[in-house]
Task: structure prediction
Amino acid sequence: SQKIEQNSEALNIQEGKTATLTCNYTNYSPAYLQWYRQDPGRGPVFLLLIRENEKEKRKERLKVTFDTTLKQSLFHITASQPADSATYLCALHTGGFKTIFGAGTRLFVKA
Amino acid sequence: DAEITQSPRHKITETGRQVTLACHQTWNHNNMFWYRQDLGHGLRLIHYSYGVQDTNKGEVSDGYSVSRSNTEDLPLTLESAASSQTSVYFCASSSTLAGGGGELFFGEGSRLTVL
Result:
C-alpha cells in the first residue's frame, strides 16, 4: 500500500542551527510534493511545493530537496528561530487533485 | 480576504446521533476536501469533491457522507456517530490548476467528541 513516513520523534535544536526533517514514501510516483506547517490547535498552512523534475527549491530560510530515486524529500530550515517551532507535514499528490499526508514531525527550537 | 471557515469549532455528541460539520469557502475553489486528524495517523482523507454535484470517497469514508450543492459549501455528515469518530476534522480547498500542484487552504478545524 502507499505510505508516507516522517520521523515521529520530535526534533530539538538550538536557535541558529539548521533543522532537517525527512519524508520518505513508498509505492508512489508523485508528480509533486508539498510541505505544510501546523501550529497547535490550527489548520495546516502551505509552505513549499517541489515538482518531480526539480531537485531543490528555496524560499527565504526554507529549502526542500526531492529525490525520486530514493523516494525521499528533505526539508531544511536554516538559522532556525523559536518561532519556527511547530509540526511540519509532508504531503504527496496522488492523482486527480488528491493530497495525502504524513503524520508530521514536531520541531522544537530552543533559544 | 478569501477564507475557509468551519463550524462548529467544538462539539460534543452522543453515540448514535447524527452530526453535521459545516465548511464554507470564499476562494471560489472547485476542489474541497475533508480530513480527520488523529494522533499517530496524521491527516486522513474522508471525502472530496471536484465541483458541484461531484463527491468521492477517500480512504476513511465509512460512516461519513458529503454533498456539494454549490461551490462554496461541503458539509460533512456523520449519520450515526460512533466513539471511533472522535477526532479533529479539517476542511480544505484548492483551485484547479493546469498540471496540478494546487496548494491546500485549510480551515481551523472542528473538534468532535462522541461520548
In short: Chain B has a mean pLDDT of 93. The two ends of chain B are 37 Å apart (CA to CA). Chain B touches chain A through 28 residues (CB under 8 Å).
